[in-house]
Amino acid sequence: MNLASSLTKVRGVGERTAAQLASAGLTTVADLVTFLPRAYEDFSEVTTIADLRPGNATIKAVCQSISTRPVRRGMRITTAVLADNTGKLQAVWFNQPYRETQLKSGDEFYFSGNYEFSYNRYQLTNPSAEKVSEVPVQTDRLLPIYRAVKGLKPTLVRKLMHELRPLISLMPETLPAEIVKSENLISYSQALSGMHFPENLKDISRAKERLAFEELFQLLLASQLNKQANAQLEGWPIPFHQATIKQFVEHLPFELTPAQRRAAWDILQDFEKATPMNRLLQGDVGSGKTVVAGLAARQAHEAGFQTAIMAPTEILATQHAATLDKLLSPFGVKVGLLTGSVKGKARQTLYEAIRTGDVDVVVGTHALIQEAVQFKKLGFVAIDEQHRFGVAQRQELLKKSARMPHLLAMTATPIPRSLALTLYGELDISILNELPKGRLPIKTKIWSPNSRAQLYSLVDQELTAGRQAYVICNLIDDDPKNELKSVEAEYKRLQNSVFKHRQIGLLHGRLKPAEKEAVMQEFASGKLDILVSTTVVEVGVDVPNATVMIIEDADRFGLSQLHQLRGRVGRSSHQSYCYLITSTSAKPTKRLQEIEKSNDGFYLAEVDLKLRGPGEIYGRAQHGELNLQIATLADTKLIARASKQAKWFVENSINLLQYKQLAEQVETYQRLTTLN
Question: Options 3.30.465.10, 3.40.50.300, 3.30.70.890, 3.10.20.740; which CATH number does 443-598 get?
Answer without folding.
Answer: 3.40.50.300
